[in-house]
Amino acid sequence: MPSTPSDSLVKVSNLSFAYDRRPVLSGINMEIPRGKVVAIMGASGCGKTTTLRLIGGQIKPTSGEVRVDGKVVHRLSSDGLYQLRRRMGMLFQFGALFTDMSVYDNVAFQMREHTDFPEELINDLVLMKLHAVGLRGAHELMPSELSGGMARRVALARAIALDPMLMMYDEPFAGLDPISMSIVGELIRKLNDALGASSIIVTHDVQESLKIVDYVYFVSAGKVVAEGTPEEIKASRAEYVHQFVWGEADGPVPFHYPATQPYGEEIMTQAAEVSNRG
Amino acid sequence: MANKLIAVLTDLGHRVTGALWRLGFASRFLLMILVYSGTSLRRFHLTIREIYFSGVMSLIIILVSGLFVGMVLGLQGYDTLERYGSSSALGVLVALSLVRELGPVVAALLFASRAGSAITAEIGLMKATEQLSAMEMMAVNPIARVVAPRFWAGVLSMPLLAALFSAMGIFGGYLVGVRLIGVDAGSFWSQMQASVDFREDIVNGVIKSFVFGIIISWIAVFEGYDAEPTAEGVSGATTRTVVTSSLAVLAADFILTAFMFRGA
Questions:
Q1: Chain B contacts of A171, Cβ < 8 Å?
Q2: Into how many domains does chain B fold?
Q3: How many CB atoms lie within 10 A of CB A200?
Q4: With contacts defined as CB-CB under 8 Å, which chain A residues touch B131?
Q5: In a mutagenesis test of the B interface, which of A77, A91, A92 is the best target, namely the one with the most B β-carbons within 10 Å?
Q6: Cβ distance of B134 and A90 shorter than 8 Å
Q7: Quick one: which H or E segment has residue B24?
Q8: Which of B219, B72, B63 has the alpha carbon at shortest distance from B150?
Q9: Is the residue at B23 inside a domain?
Q10: What is the least distance, in Å, from the CA of A91 to any CA of chain B?
Q11: Digits of tens for pLDDT over chain B (264 positions)?
């Protein structure tokens, strides 16, 4: 990525991770420059969300490191990690709103936990954040009364409650209708620029995210297979990128899950077994 | 044959080591709850809120069960005592059975199925819907904010619920013994007052219910926190909470009783 290290808020170097012995990421390198919106794209199960969890320090890498604002995340003490997380915001795939709290209390949660702000100030801030996502009128509702798109926007308001320097979005467009999708997309871009934050979007929604991001990393089978600006990605002739961007059913990512035997052979073996039993 | 035997032994070994690992995790988890209890005690309103959900909301089942258990004790006790011509001691029998045993134990079993299961399901679902992860990413420790208040609420509620169970049971025994059957009210109450010892009976009963409170709350929060984040995982964890904590309460009751009342 064309940037000097001092421009980068997040620097991922040679990062590998395995669940038990199953490798998920192998040797990933990425940089997220300050003030930019970067997308990590790839098919389901390719290790995108794992990358996000490693950046947030929820899991530790097998090898390599993630630096956020100059600090190596997995070497921080638990206090140090919590200090760093106060400056991060994360939007979970389905919002992860606290279901026993109203919309208002969800957004006020971090302010009450981490600051000594008087309740009047919290009230102003909460309404301001909710206004920014267009849901000031919904502050009394409970999460169960919200639609999927509204819940995602409330979660967004909650994530930006303490004006984070880094925003992370885990599949922000999943399961949304086209209108909610573009609302959320525009909000991500606008809030990033207004807060002067940097954002990482993990997504498989190509068309929506290419509209709003500055740079894209493509991840496949735990490796970065392509990267570039949205224009470069759209113009790319790399097989994998082409298949992904244009949504083709077959290509380097096969349609069939690998089977042990060829189709014809397996059918015949099974037929023979059935007739033997009969 | 030998292969089968080895397979059975291996399986048994796996189960035993698995159970020991889990016990180790649960013990470390309890230690973490104690370490991070500062928040739930400093911001006591968090614990009060949970006392409402697990303690106050269990009141109806505890009070109604206490009343019926006391009424049955009144009937059964009178029937037995009458054979020896000592039906006036009905008050003592009802009170001692309740304060020493039935109050703490039955209230604990009811608490495990009413509140323990709810705590496990709630924490398990919070985990499954990523609410606990979200909290961690907001730099708020879920053990301090979610688990510890629920644990302490259970520990504090249990002795109060057991006391109410016993009180209601004694009232039930009075209704049946005195009001229905016609045992003398004076001897019912006075013999009870004379025979029930504060230190020996009531304090021991309170200690029991306090221990049961720790056991149930510990199992309930651990099972919830450790649940697989799926529908089956949460339902399995809820069942395990009820089964494990009921058995643990009964086993602990035997041990405590052996220490408290041997030779008394």
A1: none
A2: 1
A3: 26
A4: 96-99
A5: A92
A6: yes
A7: helix B2-35
A8: B219
A9: no
A10: 8
A11: 789 999 999 999 999 999 999 999 999 999 999 999 987 888 899 999 999 999 999 999 999 999 999 999 999 999 999 999 898 899 999 999 999 999 999 999 999 999 999 999 999 999 999 999 999 999 999 999 999 999 999 999 999 999 999 999 999 999 999 999 999 999 999 999 999 999 899 999 999 999 999 999 999 999 999 999 999 999 999 999 999 999 999 999 999 999 998 755
Question: Is B249 within the bounds of a domain?
Answer: yes
| pLDDT above 60 (res A251) | yes
| Nearest residue on chain B to A110, alpha-carbon basis | B138
Using a CB–CB cutoff of 8 Å, tell me whether A56 touches chain B: yes
pLDDT higher at A236 or B125: B125
Domains of chain A from N-terminus onward: 5-100+164-277 (3.40.50.300)
Facing B129 at nearest CB: one of A82, A88, A96: A96
| Residue among B129, B130, B138 whose CB faces A85 most closely | B138
Verify whether the Cβ–Cβ distance A93 to B137 is below 8 Å.
no
Query: Looking at A185-199, A236-250, B212-226, which range is the least confident one?
Result: A236-250
Q: Is residue B212 part of a domain?
A: yes
Q: Which two tokens stand for residue B173?
A: 């025994």
- What confidence tens digit (pLDDT) does each residue in A213-230 have? 999 998 888 888 889 999
Distance between CA B143 and CA B111 in Å, rounded?
A: 22
Determine, yes or no, domain membership for B24. Answer: no
B138:A109 CB<8 A: yes
Boundaries of domain holding B94? 43-261
Closest CA to A181 of A214, A153, A208, A216: A208
Q: Find the CB nearest A96 among B133, B139, B141.
A: B133
pTM beyond 0.80: yes
State which of A33-47, A55-69, A233-247 shows the largest mean pLDDT. Answer: A55-69
